Amino acid sequence: MRIELAAIGHQFADQWLFQGLSLTFEADRLYALVGPSGSGKSTLLSIIASMISPTEGSITFERVDEVFWVFQTANGVPARSAADHVALPLLAQGMDRTVADPIAHDILHRFGLGATADRPFKSLSGGEAQRLMLARAMARDPQCLLIDEPTAQLDRTSAASVTTTLINLRSSSRITIVATHDQSVIDACDSVIDLTPQT
Amino acid sequence: MKLRAIASEAGRNVRSGATRAVTWALIVLLIGLGTLLADTYQAVRIVQSAYAFNASGASVLTLQTDGTVDPGRCLALETVEGVESAMALRFTETTLRPMALPEGPLPIVEIAGDPVAFLDGSPDPVNVSGILLSTEVAEQLGMEGADALELESGERVAIRGTYPFADDGRDGRLASSALSVVPPAGHFDECWIRVWPYEYAAVDLLAFTADPAPEGASLPQAAQLNMTLGTAPEFQQEFSHRITRMAAALGPLAIALVGFAALWARRLELSTAMQLGVRKRELVLQMQLETLTWAAPVCWLLLAGGFVLLNHAVLSEDQPALFAGLASQVGAALICALSGAAAGVLCVRPTLQYRYLKAR
Q1: Which of B20, B101, B191, B196 would you label with A133, given CA atoms 20 to 30 Å apart?
Q2: A121 with A151: CB under 8 angstroms?
């Protein structure tokens, strides 16, 4: 399972965000994507998620069928409960509600969100909401997980709990790439890819 | 996703408020009231005007002659399309002097035809023979329906029934007369026809009912029994060109846009669900169920409102057609809401999720 970027470059408004980027991402590793704002971290994630095409270069997916993106801003349904968010990907896999709900609760417990299971998304704190997004991604169990600035909008305590959660996401059947500025997250990763423009 | 899970997700979205069913229902209700029910109200108003016109006797066209009307030809006009009924009238010198009103003699007008059905505007024949009085005269004489009228001479005359003849601006000669139903033999003075739907051009038909006038006799005069509501109303044109008709046609389209907007407003949620593995066709079905929860009750309310409106208007003849028109428009509105919702889901692309998020 691997993703290979070959001489990727992307131009935005006549400016190259990055050029000649060749990278290989493999399973069971946490990758940190670092660089100042505007260096193209989110753009690179968009390219890996096939949401945009690179201006140049190619991308190859080897035994990776699905890429799941957890955004910097938690995008839940305000009125639905935390458990409902996690149960949805399970229902989408064909499970009955009676099977999906206990599994969803179990996943929430593993992410330290057991007490929030029945609370609506809009009542969760920033840290809880971000961890819920990760828990939902885990219920989907994607082969490639892209996480954009997971701690950017969180206080220190919440950020720490999210970082711990991220470490637990490492899996032999998953490639995990995190775009971040947070040193604690960077420290938790196995590889660091720096997109800081070379002057 | 299993069907039960789809229904369960739809139910939870509605109950939690994620569907915003009340908001969309109120918007659709306002559109429905402003277009569909407004059009029904306008149609009812026009039909009521037409009914009032007919009830006032304005749809009765008369031909007055010096005794040259052939009653057979007059009554035969009933077979002409658009002529609801006809009767021939012969004014006599004979009068009835009721004991109760000796100073108010009632001139006898001989009628060939069915005067009660004609003057009542009833499509069903009544076929009363004998002497008839107007309802007002019968009330003045203290009579109720068929009864015997005591005359000043001491005789008693059997009254077979009454006929309506309101004092509403119509030619009032029959208001204080006694009608005597006679066979259509000899010549009569006048031929009256009730034309419905009203068309003044039908007055030309009356010319065929009169024989040539003798030398020196006055020429036949055609007239309308009641001219206070005008001589040329254009109910049909007013009905088919009513301004609200266009609004009623646009109503379902506006509701389709609401259906679309209700789902497009949730494009981030929908694209996320697609990314989480929910198939588009499953989401279409789920959103149809959710749309039904707010669109169907509103459609039911509009139908109920229309039913009450039409019942209140008491338009027995045209009520089924008007209700059928409203029902088809409401049905179209429901289909449009569902179609708009389906289009809303189909337009969402999971690959644009990031863009949807940024646009939030």
Answers
A1: B20
A2: no
